[in-house]
Amino acid sequence: MAILEQLADAIINGKRDDAKSLTERALAEKTDAKRILDEGLIKGMGVVGEKFKANEFYVPELLVAARAMHAAMDVLKPIIAQKGIQPVGRAVIGTVRGDLHDIGKNLVAMMLEGAGFQVIDLGVDVAPEKFVEAAKENKAQIIAMSALLTTTMVNMKEVVAALQQAGAKGKHKVMIGGAPITQEYADQIGADGYAPDAASAVDKAKQLLP
Amino acid sequence: MPTIRVTFLPDGQTIEVEEGTSVLAAAAHIGLAIASPCGGNATCGRCQVRIEQGIWEPNQAEQRLLTPEELAQDFRLACQGRCSGDMVVFVPEFSRTAIHQIAVEGIGAEIEVDPAVRKIFLRLPAPSVQDLRSDFSRLLAGIGSPDLSLDSDPGFLREAATAIRRANFRVTAVVADSKVIAVEEGDTSADCYGAAVDIGSSTIVLYLIRLSTGERVAVAATPNPQSRHGEDVIARVQFARSQPDGTARLQGLVRDALNRLIGQACKQAQVLPAHIWEMVFVGNSCMTHLLLGIPPEGLGMAPYVPSFSCAQYVPASALGLRINPRARAYVLSGIAGFVGADTVGVILATRLWQDDGLRVAVDIGTNGEVVVASGGRLLAASGAAGPAFEGARISSGMPAVAGAIDTVRIEDDIIVTTIAGAPPRGICGSGLVDAAAELLRMGVVQPDGRLGPAEPGALPAWLCARVHGKGAGASVELVSAKQSGGKPVKLTARDFRELQLAKGAIAAAISLLLEKTGASYDDVSELLLAGAFGNYIRPASALAIGLLPPVPLERIRPVGNAAGSGAQVALLSRPLRRQAEEIARAVEYVELCDEPGFYDRFAELMALAPSQAVGQGG
To answer: Which residue of B61, B64, B348, B501 has the fewest C-beta atoms within 10 A of its own C-beta?
Structure first.
């Protein structure tokens, strides 16, 4: 359907107003909401992710694309809720305790939403217990954590420990990222996954879904 | 525990260590400084050594960070290796930390010499029946300044009393502010020196000054030995937190370096360390905490608050500094967060508060401090650019030492110069900025940061041939293997992304602070480039990529090690020292993470292009 292609394009190119109006038009033309979501939003953000991996897009392009997607999503949300369309998965995300950096975390959140996840963003300076509680409350399959400093990355270990203590380690998968984070560190602390950037984070999150 | 013998080449030194000790630590024990910008976190790959004899299987991190060729040639990472059986390890020159190209010339500020510490030679009248005053009253009256008092240390009182009698009332009083801290026999007034020190994260610089005249008699500098525990301050804060004696060890390292510098400077100037009566320090908050042995914990966690930010006086002997035992140390005030005494030093040296116009001072380093002065109001922020400008996180990046490409020009070839004219083996910050500007101009890199021509055939053939790969795998060869006599020096697609992050942070910090003063780029009457990097960066290149805002070239002025100059000013002038304390309290600190517009501004200003006017864009 041409209109859904146009919608995907509007998102890829960060055209917020077009994304909104195209979504409204599609709904008015009685296009199925799930199709709009899959073939417009998720498809568009999928291309954004590919372009990021190919180094054609970087942070600024991701940001404007995500904004456009949000504009479309705002229109779609009530319909999706009404129809009971389920997200691909649910993820809680936050920057660990003691750390205020959120740009990377925000990008991952946007890309996850763009891939059809419901994302509960806990913000920055998030205490370990909060990650666990939020995951439980929201029945999230994924706990995603970000840290930018070698002084704060240690708090990721605490979340894994808190999960173990709550006997919930199997129920929620933990994935981590941030400049000082490595695969070795993820293995060391018992995290289930590591991703070096927002685009590969989506792949990892999908992989970790049961 | 079994001990292992490790021999390091080409130095030929052998050390016995416990099995399991890291190779990096073993080297540090014998004073062999191997570069470790990430502090052993297995993210930088800089601590390369070659295993000559012994068994060293590369672990997962080494396999990730080293190329198959390097692994085949027996290269390993010192931070990952654990001594387990006698070994012989070769440490190549490119893995050693060495003295960086540093700005030791601060801006020469003209100030009235009025130091806190002075020596006054006195021929005191001897006691008599007509004049029954005590020796100490006689002394204080002889000096004559108002509100004078004697240091309450009993050792001093004993020495002073003895000196006055032994020297038959011809003595030299040493006065610090309004306290007499020493009395020496005879006339020693010529022997009055002070030291101003800039404790940088990478380099420590000491200026030895004759206090009576304000004359600088020696300068000495050394790499900061704390860097083995991490190039950046966060890594050092983490080290201080994670090791039981971490803070003490870091303090010990800087103290030993300071004592070495004192020795070197004294030798240069033919001065005795005992003639140094005051040391004045500037440095970022982490450095000043570690100097004083105060754990920098608060700086490692949100909201990044230091333990102290006001100026501190401490007896020099308490810090283990080998100058006169009665000398004192003074640390300038900090502002907030990581923005510390070094920034106050810059403000002091440049008199940033004085002009009516709008002046901006930027330190383009890891912490990217920006200070904006507008009609008497001062705002400061830390643009946390990250270490890209110091060569870290850039694939061929290196610090500004011999062999680093420091300028780049493209005419009918890519023409580079290197530090000390040595064969090119990597690129430093100023070279990176030049390279980006030139490659942008030639269309090899696009304003949005993509590496590659905008369309096929857009580049002349010779330049096109230097670009290899596409997309995320693209790279541009600045210097071929043949030209360098070793590995080629390239910039990769990822390198430009790192540069975008770094320049975006600084450009956004400047933009936001200017906006808060209600000013636009046109209003800037002067843009001062502080820090070592500021002296070497080519302003035109910085403007071309939008690292600096579009201020006319003639208004951009490098001020070298202004922080160090500020320390000298504080050493030589009591009134200016006090003024700096007041000004530091009045500076408005802006926490960029909290600013609603910062995120957007950062993303906008990531483009490799001259910054647009404040308020416009995106």
So the answer is: B64
The count of other CB atoms within 10 Å of the CB of residue B273 is 18
Distance from CA of B302 to the nearest CA of A (A): 4
Tokens found for residue A177: 């990222």
* Interchain pair B234, A150: CB under 8 A: yes
Q: Is the minimum CB–CB distance between A169 and chain B shorter than 8 Å?
A: no
Residue B387: pLDDT band with limits 50, 70, 90: confident
Q: Does residue B30 carry a pLDDT above 80?
A: no
Under CATH, domain B194-331 is a member of which superfamily? Domain of unknown function (DUF4445) (3.30.420.480)
B39 interfaces chain A, CB cutoff of 8 Å: yes
Q: Which of B507, B39, B462, B454 is nearest to B229 (CA)?
A: B39
pLDDT of residue B103: 42
Tell me the two tokens of residue B301. Answer: 């966690």
Is A123 at the interface with chain B, CB within 8 A? no
Give me the pLDDT at residue A29, please. 95
Q: Please check whether residue A188 touches B, CB under 8 A.
A: no
Helix, strand, or coil (residue B381): strand
| The predicted structure's pLDDT at residue B97 | 65
Chain A partners of B605 at a C-beta cutoff of 8 Å?
A: none
Whether B443 shows a pLDDT value over 90: the answer reads yes
d(CA B273, CA B263): 7
| Choices 3.40.50.280, 3.10.310.30, 3.40.1670.10, 3.100.10.20: CATH for A89-208 | 3.40.50.280
Order of strands across the sheet that contains B276-283: B215-223, B203-210, B193-199, B276-283, B328-331, B312-315
Contact B302 A60 (CB under 8 A): no
Chain mean pLDDT for chain B: 90
pLDDT above 80 for B366: no
Candidates A53, A58, A101, partner chain B, best to mutate (most B CBs within 10 A): A58
Nearest C-alpha in A relative to B591: A100
Of B129-133, B135-139, B335-339, B388-392, the one with minimum mean pLDDT is: B388-392
Task: Determine whether the interchain pair A182/B604 forms a contact, defined as Cβ–Cβ distance below 8 Å.
Answer: no
Strand order in the sheet with B475-479: B467-468, B475-479, B489-492
Give me the residues of chain A with pLDDT under 50, please. none
Its pTM stands at 0.84
Asked if A150 lies within 8 A of B607 by C-beta distance, the reply is no
Interface TM-score (ipTM) > 0.85: yes
- The distance of Cα A10 from the centroid of its chain, to the nearest Å, equals 20
Please list the alpha-helical segments (H only) found in B104-245: 135-143, 154-166, 233-242
Q: Could you name the CATH architecture of B3-95?
A: Roll (3.10)
Of the CATH numbers 1.10.1240.10, 3.40.50.12500, 1.10.260.40, 1.20.1270.10, which one belongs to the domain with range A2-83?
A: 1.10.1240.10
For B170-223, how does the pLDDT look when each residue is reduced to its tens digit (9 = 90+)?
A: 999 999 999 999 999 999 999 999 999 999 988 899 999 999 888 899 999 988
